[in-house]
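Have a close read of the entry that follows and walk me through the local backbone shapes. See right below:
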Amino acid sequence: MTFTVTPDHVSAFQADGAVLLPGLMTDRVWDLEDAVEENIKSPSQFERTYHPEDGSAPFFQDFCNWQRIKGYREAVLSSAMAETAAALMASETARIFHDHVLVKEPGSSMRTPWHQDQPYYLVDARQSVSFWVTLDPIPHDIALEFVKGSHTWGQDYRPERFNGDSLYEGDDSERVPDIEAGRADGLFDVLSWEMQPGDAVAFNFRTLHGAPANTTANRRRAVSFRWVGDDAMFKRRQGRTSPPFPGLVFDDGAPFGGEMFPPVWPR
């Protein structure tokens, strides 16, 4: 199956901060399934598995494995993602930032809190896109959710750990507003989509998003691939970023690049 990004996809991404791309990675599902299983059996130093306090099923996460695991690597280098990323970002180039695997096992009570990705990162970019690729059917009640247009608010909210602690010690920046209360009051328009294996949601690093617990009897496996465009710069934060990239030397405000983050588009 060949995916073609359309003007409607681009306009929705630019205006809303998130858009559904049905079938973007349908031809990669089996390879990505194998890659996820390899990743779980052989996690990286950045692996982070959350075990809910109620004893329900775990939530496995890992970062930065695309260069060592074939299924991820081929998805980055040979799929339609890079060209699609450049089109959505209105960028001449698309540079891979990192990958992130997320596996919520059946019955996991772990909710992904509302957050933006941008403040967690050592890169700053207006031209940015994450592709959240599902490997399992996603019913509406466990779908990833987005606050429509929140990438245009001009605000980077305080990055926090799942327990609510600040990621950076001493960070007194503004916290994410109460999205659930605002949604109930009609203040926020929340987007979400049912998805099939190989579908992707593309969203800007500054779009507020979160996800419910996995209340189903099925796994919820997803792989995110994060990309940046022409305007990306290195950003020095107040502490260890997520993912951290230990040992990476860079100048704050310098153009983003290096062998860890190669340009993939144009080919």
Summary: The longest strand covers residues 94-104. The longest helix spans residues 29-41.
